C-alpha cells in the first residue's frame, strides 16, 4: 500500500477521532501542569496510547475488508469478499455489491450503498442499509468493477449466507446460485445444509446439485446412482451433462456410458412429450382465439342465417374499446382491461342492433344481398376507425398478471396471456350456452331459429328477437376483440385478418351448432400448430384452408350438421 | 344481332366502347404530343385499366348474374391470368435485369436460386404464355367447380369457400418459395413481342386490344346468354332443383359457366398487367374480389353491359376520390354496397330501365335462390 492509501485509511477510521480528542485535551492540561502530576500525565498518555492502539486494532478488523474491496487488487478483493461472507450481517452489503449498488464515495473515500435518486444517487450506510448519508451527483461516486471470477466468488458468498436464511424461498435461490459453478467448498456448504434442511423443495434442489457433481466423481456407485436419479429430473444442466456423458468416448467405463445413454433417451422421450404438450397448448390457445372470433358469428350466421361480413369489424370495435378504456384509466391497466369486457360488449352490441335495425331486417331471406350490405358496413366501420384513431396500430398494454409465463419446469413453460385467453374463451362459451339454454331470450331465439312463422304465431315478437340475437352475437364479437387486443395489433385491419378464418370455423363446425364451432375452432387451432413445424406458419394456414375447402365439398353442412326441419330453412 | 334492336342500351354501350377503343389510339397515333387531341400516356393506361376491369366485371356477371353463383374470388382468376402474362414479360427482360442473368429473373438471383423452376418453362414463348393465361385460371376453376358443384355446395357456402380460395392463394403467392416474386410480385417489364412496353404506340395498341377484347367478349357473352345453353343456366339460377328434375345435369352447366368466366377473368388480367406494369399478390386479396362484386351490383347484374357500366363508373369514382380525399373512398365504397343492395337491387341499369319503361322486369329482380 502507498502512503496515500494509508492516509485514506486514517481518514475513514471512525476511531481516529477519540485519539485526536484526547491529544487536544492533554495539550490543555499541559499548560497548567504541576510537576507532581507528571506521573498522572504519563499514565494518561499511556492510557491514551492504549486506547489508540485498541482503536487501531478494531479499525483493522472491521472496515479493512471494505478497504480492500474498495481499492485493493483483484486478489485482495476476492479475499475481502470471502472474509465478508463469513458473517451473516454482511448479507445486505454483498447483495448490494452483486447488484452494482455498492459504490465508492469519492469525497469521503468510503464504500456506501447508492440508490438512484432525482439528483443522482442517494447514499446509505453499507452495513445497516438504512441510515442516509447524503444525496450526491452522479459523478461523486465510482462504481466497483468486478471480474467474472469475483462475481462467482461473490455469488457463492451471498449464496452461503442465504443458505442459512430463515426463508425457504431465499434458501432455494441460494442453492440454485451456488450450484451454478460448484467447487469443493460450495459442495461442502451444500452437504452441511442437506443435513439440517427440512423444506422439501430446498432439499430436492440441494440433492440435484450434489447429483450433478457426483456424475463426474471417481466413485462408480455414486456416479451410477447420480445418473439413475438425474434421469427422472427435469433439469436443463442435468440434461446437458448427461448428453456429454453419452457422447461416444466420453467415459471409459462402458457401464456408465450405457446408463448415461439410457438416461438421455429417457429424458428425450420426456422432452418430446413436453413438446407435444406445448404444441397442444399453443394449438388450444390459437383455437381459443378462433372460437372467440367465430362464436358470435355462429349466432348471427348459424342461428339467424345472416351473413355478417362486418363481424370482424365488431371485434375491432371491441379491441378499440379496450384501448379507449386504458387511455381513460392509465394507472389501472388491469382494471381497465376487466372493465372493457362489459364495455366492449355494450359498444359492439349497440352497433350490431343498429346494423340489424337499419339494414339487415330489410334483407332477410336474401343471404347474398345481406353479405354485400354488411360488407359495406365493414368498410364503413374500418374507415371510421381509421379517421378517428389514425390508420396506425394503437398499443394496448398487457397488465402484469397477464404477462410472463408459467414455468412448470426447465423444459415446459406456458405463457400466461395465452392461458388466460383459453380460460376466457371457455367462460364466454359457457355463458353464451347458458344464455341460450336458460333465459327467455335464449328460448325465443331458438324458437325463431327453428320456425319463424310458428314462433310468430305463438306470440313471440320476432322482430325484437332478431335485433336482440344480432346484438348478442355482435356483443360477443366485441368481447372477443378485448381478448384479441392482448395478442395482436389493434388497428383498422384487425377484423379483416379474422373474417375468413371465423367463417371457416363456423362452416367447418356445422352451421347452427355452437358445440360444432367449439370443436372446429380447437381442432383447427391444434392442426395448424402441429403442421407449423413441418410446413411453416403460412403454408400450414394454406393447408388448413385447402383442407376445409375440400372438407366442405365432401360434407357441405360441416362436422355436425343440423338435423330436422330447421336444416331445410 | 336482334338484341341490339330490342335493347337500345346494348347498342349505345357497344357504340361507346367502340368509339373509345378506336378514337383514342387513332388520335394518339396521328397527332403530336402537344396537340389538344392527344391523350397522355397516363390517361391511355388509365382508360385501358378501366376496360380491363370492365372485362373482369363482365366475367363475374356471367357467373353471378346469369348462373346465380356469387363468386367472392373472381379476382383470383384475374390475378392468375395476370401472373401468366407477367411471367412472359419477366422472361423478355433477359439480360437487362439488375443482375443481368439471361435465364433467371432478378428476384430468383436475389434468392440465390440456381435454375429456373419447372413451372416457368415455356413462358418465354408468347403463344404458350397466352395459352396459360386461359389454362391456369381455367384449370383451377375446373377443379374447384367440379368438386363444389358435384357435391352441391351452393349459396353462401360457395361464396365463402371461393373467398377462402383467393385468401389461400394470397398467402401462397406472398411466399418467396413459391417462385413468383413473393411480396413484390413481378415488375420492371421491358418489352412485349419485341416492342418497348413503355412506348406510346404499345400503350395505344394495348388499349385497342383491350377494347376489342371487351367488345368481342360482350358479344360472345350475349350470344351465350341468348343460346339454349344460356337459357338453361338462367333457369338454374332461378330454380335449380326444378331444372335438375327436368333431367339436366345442373352441375355441368354451372361448371361450364364458371370455367368460362374464370378464363375471361384471366384474359382481363393478362391485358391488365402490361398496362399497369406490375402484378403482385395483393390482386388476390379478398377485398379486390369484393370490389368486383360491387361493380356488377352498382351497374346492375344480369345485364352484361351493366357490369361494364358499373366497373367503369366505380373505378372512375375511385380514381377521382382517392385523389381528392383518400379518406372518403372507403366510406363511399361501403355506402355504395349498402345503398345499392337496399335501394337499387337492379343497379344503375335497373334505374334507367325503370325510367324508360316502368313495367319492364329484369331477370335479376326475380326470385333469388338462397
From TrEMBL, chain A:
Lipoprotein recorded as keyword: no
InterPro entries assigned to the protein according to its UniProt record, in alphabetical order: ABC_transp_permease, ABC_UrtB_bac, ARM-type_fold, BCAA_transport_permease
Keywords in alphabetical order: Amino-acid transport, Cell membrane, Membrane, Transmembrane, Transmembrane helix, Transport
Mode of membrane association: Multi-pass membrane protein
Location(s) in or outside the cell: Cell inner membrane
Principal cellular location given in the protein's record: membrane
Residue ranges crossing the lipid bilayer per the database entry: 37-55, 280-307, 332-355, 367-385, 419-436, 503-527, 533-552
Record-stated family: Belongs to the binding-protein-dependent transport system permease family. LivHM subfamily.
UniProt name for this protein: Urea ABC transporter permease subunit UrtB
Originating species: Methylomonas rivi
Gene: urtB
From TrEMBL, chain B:
Keywords, ordered alphabetically: Cell membrane, Membrane, Transmembrane, Transmembrane helix
Entry membrane topology: Multi-pass membrane protein
Location(s), subcellular: Cell inner membrane
Pfam (any one): BPD_transp_2
Major subcellular location class: membrane
Transmembrane region(s): 12-31, 37-56, 63-85, 126-149, 156-174, 205-225, 252-272, 292-316, 328-352
NCBIfam families: urea_trans_UrtC (TIGR03408)
PANTHER family: HIGH-AFFINITY BRANCHED-CHAIN AMINO ACID TRANSPORT SYSTEM PERMEASE (PTHR30482), SLR1201 PROTEIN (PTHR30482:SF4)
Protein name: Urea ABC transporter permease subunit UrtC
Native source organism of the sequence: Methylomonas rivi
Gene designation per UniProt: urtC
Amino acid at each position: 500500500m502507498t502512503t496515500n492509501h494509508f492516509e485514506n485509511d486514517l481518514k475513514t477510521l471512525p476511531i481516529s477521532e477519540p485519539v485526536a480528542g484526547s491529544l487536544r485535551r492533554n495539550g490543555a492540561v499541559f499548560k497548567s501542569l504541576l510537576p507532581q502530576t507528571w506521573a498522572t500525565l504519563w499514565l494518561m498518555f499511556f492510557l491514551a496510547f492504549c486506547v489508540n492502539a485498541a482503536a487501531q486494532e478494531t479499525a483493522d478488523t472491521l472496515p479493512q475488508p471494505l478497504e480492500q474491496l474498495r481499492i485493493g487488487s483483484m486478489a485482495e478483493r476476492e479475499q475481502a469478499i470471502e472474509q465478508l461472507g463469513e458473517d451473516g450481517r454482511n448479507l445486505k452489503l454483498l447483495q448490494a455489491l452483486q447488484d452494482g449498488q455498492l459504490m465508492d464515495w469519492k469525497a469521503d473515500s468510503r464504500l456506501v450503498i447508492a440508490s438512484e435518486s432525482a439528483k443522482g444517487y442517494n447514499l446509505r450506510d453499507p452495513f445497516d442499509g438504512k441510515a442516509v448519508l447524503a444525496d450526491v451527483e452522479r459523478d461523486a461516486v465510482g462504481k466497483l468493477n468486478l471480474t467474472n471470477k469475483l462475481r462467482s466468488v461473490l455469488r457463492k458468498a451471498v449464496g452461503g449466507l442465504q443458505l442459512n436464511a430463515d426463508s425457504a424461498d431465499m434458501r432455494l435461490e441460494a442453492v440454485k446460485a451456488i450450484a451454478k459453478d460448484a467447487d469443493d467448498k460450495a459442495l461442502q456448504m451444500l452437504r452441511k445444509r442437506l443435513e439440517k434442511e427440512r423444506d422439501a423443495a430446498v432439499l430436492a434442489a440441494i440433492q440435484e446439485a450434489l447429483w450433478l457433481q457426483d456424475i463426474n466423481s471417481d466413485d462408480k456407485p455414486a456416479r451410477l446412482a447420480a445418473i439413475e436419479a438425474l434421469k427422472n429430473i427435469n433439469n436443463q444442466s442435468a440434461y446437458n451433462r448427461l448428453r456429454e456423458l453419452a457422447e461416444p468416448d466420453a467415459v471409459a467405463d462402458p457401464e456408465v456410458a450405457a446408463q448415461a445413454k439410457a438416461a438421455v433417451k429417457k429424458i428425450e422421450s420426456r422432452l418430446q412429450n413436453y413438446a407435444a404438450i406445448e404444441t397442444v397448448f399453443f394449438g388450444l390457445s390459437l383455437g381459443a382465439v378462433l372460437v372467440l372470433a367465430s362464436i358470435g358469428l355462429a349466432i348471427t350466421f348459424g342461428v339467424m342465417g345472416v351473413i355478417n361480413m362486418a363481424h370482424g369489424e365488431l371485434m375491432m370495435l371491441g379491441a378499440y374499446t379496450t384501448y379507449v378504456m386504458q387511455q381513460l384509466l392509465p394507472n389501472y391497466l388491469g382494471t381497465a382491461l376487466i372493465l372493457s369486457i362489459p364495455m366492449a360488449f355494450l359498444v359492439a352490441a349497440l352497433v350490431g342492433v343498429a346494423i340489424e335495425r337499419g339494414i339487415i331486417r330489410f334483407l332477410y331471406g336474401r343471404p347474398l344481398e345481406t353479405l354485400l350490405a354488411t360488407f359495406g358496413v365493414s368498410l364503413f366501420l374500418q374507415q371510421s376507425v381509421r379517421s378517428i384513431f389514425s390508420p396506425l396500430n394503437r398499443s394496448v398494454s398487457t397488465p402484469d398478471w397477464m404477462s410472463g409465463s408459467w414455468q412448470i419446469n426447465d423444459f415446459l413453460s406456458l405463457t400466461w396471456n395465452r392461458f388466460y385467453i383459453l380460460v376466457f374463451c371457455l367462460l364466454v362459451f359457457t355463458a353464451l350456452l347458458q344464455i341460450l339454454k336458460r333465459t327467455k331470450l335464449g328460448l325465443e331465439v331458438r324458437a325463431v331459429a327453428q320456425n319463424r312463422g310458428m314462433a310468430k304465431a305463438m306470440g313471440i315478437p320476432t322482430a325484437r328477437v332478431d335485433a336482440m340475437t344480432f346484438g348478442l352475437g355482435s356483443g360477443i364479437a366485441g368481447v372477443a376483440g378485448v381478448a384479441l387486443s392482448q395478442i395482436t395489433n389493434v388497428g383498422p385491419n384487425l377484423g379483416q385478418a379474422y373474417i375468413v378464418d371465423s367463417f371457416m370455423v363456423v362452416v367447418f363446425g356445422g352451421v347452427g351448432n355452437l358445440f360444432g364451432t367449439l370443436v372446429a375452432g380447437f381442432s383447427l387451432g391444434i392442426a395448424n400448430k402441429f403442421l407449423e413445424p413441418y410446413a411453416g406458419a403460412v403454408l400450414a394456414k394454406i393447408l388448413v384452408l385447402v383442407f376445409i375447402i375440400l372438407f366442405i365439398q365432401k360434407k357441405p353442412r360441416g362436422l355436425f350438421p343440423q338435423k330436422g326441419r330447421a336444416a331445410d330453412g | 344481332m336482334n338484341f341490339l334492336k330490342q335493347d337500345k342500351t346494348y347498342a349505345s354501350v357497344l357504340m361507346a366502347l367502340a368509339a373509345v377503343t378506336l378514337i383514342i389510339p387513332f388520335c394518339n397515333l396521328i397527332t403530336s404530343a402537344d396537340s389538344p387531341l392527344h391523350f397522355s400516356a397516363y390517361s391511355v393506361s388509365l382508360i385501358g385499366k378501366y376496360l380491363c376491369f370492365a372485362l373482369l366485371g363482365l366475367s363475374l356477371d356471367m357467373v353471378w348474374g346469369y348462373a346465380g353463383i356469387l363468386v367472392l374470388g373472381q379476382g383470383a382468376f384475374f390475378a392468375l391470368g395476370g401472373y401468366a402474362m407477367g411471367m412472359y414479360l419477366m422472361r423478355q427482360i433477359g439480360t437487362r435485369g439488375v443482375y443481368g442473368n439471361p435465364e433467371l429473373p432478378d428476384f430468383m438471383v436475389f434468392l440465390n436460386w440456381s435454375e429456373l423452376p419447372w413451372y416457368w418453362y415455356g413462358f418465354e414463348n408468347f403463344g404458350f404464355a397466352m395459352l396459360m393465361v386461359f389454362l391456369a385460371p381455367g384449370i383451377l376453376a375446373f377443379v374447384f367447380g367440379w368438386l363444389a358443384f358435384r357435391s352441391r355446395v351452393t349459396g353462401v357456402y360457395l361464396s365463402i369457400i371461393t373467398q377462402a380460395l383467393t385468401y389461400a392463394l394470397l398467402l401462397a403467392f406472398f411466399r418467396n418459395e413459391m417462385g413468383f416474386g413473393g411480396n413484390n410480385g413481378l415488375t420492371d417489364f421491358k418489352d412485349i413481342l419485341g416492342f418497348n412496353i413503355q412506348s406510346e404506340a404499345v400503350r395505344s395498341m394495348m388499349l385497342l386490344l383491350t377494347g376489342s377484347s371487351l367488345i368481342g367478349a360482350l358479344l360472345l357473352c350475349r350470344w351465350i346468354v341468348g343460346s339454349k345453353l344460356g337459357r338453361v343456366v338462367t333457369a338454374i339460377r332461378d330454380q335449380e332443383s326444378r331444372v335438375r328434375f327436368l333431367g339436366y345435369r345442373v352441375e355441368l352447366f354451372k361448371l361450364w359457366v364458371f370455367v368460362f368466366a374464370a378464363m375471361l377473368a384471366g384474359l382481363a388480367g393478362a391485358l391488365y398487367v402490361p398496362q399497369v406494369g406490375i402484378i403482385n399478390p395483393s390482386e388476390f386479396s379478398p377485398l379486390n374480389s369484393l370490389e368486383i362484386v360491387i361493380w356488377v351490383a352498382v351497374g346492375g347484374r344480369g345485364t352484361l353491359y351493366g357490369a361494364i357500366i358499373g366497373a367503369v363508373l366505380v373505378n372512375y369514382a375511385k380514381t377521382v376520390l382517392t385523389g381528392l380525399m383518400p379518406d372518403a373512398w372507403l366510406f363511399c365504397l361501403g355506402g355504395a354496397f349498402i345503398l345499392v343492395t337496399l335501394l337499387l337491387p337492379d343497379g344503375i341499369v335497373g334505374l334507367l330501365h325503370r325510367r324508360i319503361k316502368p313495367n319492364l322486369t329484369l331477370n335479376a329482380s326475380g326470385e333469388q335462390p338462397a
